[in-house]
Amino acid sequence: MLDHFGAPLGVGVYAGQREAIFSARQRDIAAIAQSPNVVAKLGGLAMPDNGFGWDRRARPASSDELVVAQSRYYQHTIECFGPARCMFESNFPVDKRSLPCGAYWNAMKKIAAGYSADEQDAMFFGTAQRIYRL
């Protein structure tokens, strides 16, 4: 299971290096996706360690802000793994410091909007049902 996109850091010595880290992450995600037994859990990028800074604001991030700032992580991972090996995940209560749970799920709906109904079903439910034998 690949969780939280492998937790790309954006604080401390990694602050200000988002583009370099994303570029390396693209290669790493593509390489991990070559292993057919690995499934990706998509979420967790609103944690303070990821460096988006929403946890330090008076107003939490909106779903649109999440889509603008993070959709490329989601889209690249879905492209590499395919919807049948991806599942949207909740990372609450940790992410609550940065955005409301509803804003996260609205952002996932926006990110998934371009996929077919079957692909959306896989990412919102089917992959988790299959992997966790629910």
Would you spell out the secondary-structure blueprint of this structure?
Elements: E1 2-3, H1 18-33, E2 40-42, H2 63-81, E3 86-88, H3 101-112, H4 117-131
Parallel strand pairs: 1-2, 2-3
Provide structural commentary:
By secondary structure, this protein is mainly α. Helix content is 46%, strand content 6%. The chain has a three-stranded parallel beta sheet. Helix 2 links the parallel strand 2 and strand 3. Helix 1 packs parallel to helix 2 and helix 2 packs across helix 3. The two termini are 16 Å apart.
End-to-end separation in angstroms reads 16 Å
CATH superfamily: Metal-dependent hydrolases
Biggest beta sheet summary: 3 strands, parallel
Counted beta strands = 3
H/E element string?
EHEHEHH
Q: What is the topology, as strand order, of the major beta sheet?
A: 1-2-3
Supply the helix-strand structural class.
Answer: mainly alpha
CATH class: Alpha Beta
Number of helices: 4
